Amino acid sequence: MRIPPLYKKPSWQRLFAGMVLGAIISWCIFLYTFGEWQEDLVTEIEDQAYSIEELKKTNKIYKEEITALNKINQEKLRVQSIHVTLLNGERYQFTTLNTYMIQDHVKEDISDVIAKDLESVYKSRKLLKKAIENKIYKIDDKQYKVEIEEMFIYTTLFIELKVSFAK
Fold first, then answer.
1. Is the CB of residue 87 less than 8 Å from the CB of residue 149?
2. What span, in angstroms and rounded, lies between the C-alpha atoms of 162 and 144?
3. pLDDT in tens, 7-42
4. Comparing C-alpha atoms, which of 74, 54, 81, 148 is closest to residue 118?
């Protein structure tokens, strides 16, 4: 069996030539369009990279400033007041005066922490605790001992106490 020689006919030759020419033209159009898209994308990526670098520089400057300001502010923080609370005063049937007297005695014992920076007060917290707990408070001919339940150190020193009879 033999394949017919259609490639010799001019109509078939024009068809194949048109297909080849169409493929070449469409390939050129594809390359041009793809090149334009790539150029736009490369330009956009370069703009974004420049923006990212600028934002990183700005962010770094802000972080340095914030760190410096935080250090300055941290050095300025000082204990300004002392707040003492009795948790179990009603158990011993304390009057308001008795409660006030114990709170006042505790405040007097640790009044030297006022106007000190927070770091030094934090470092001496165990000493403060021992100074409060080791003292016996005498009220109405009875001796009481206090135990620190919680202590929060900030610009106001919060102390929560539990009272018990001294032995």
1. yes
2. 10
3. 677 887 888 889 999 999 999 999 999 999 999 999
4. 74
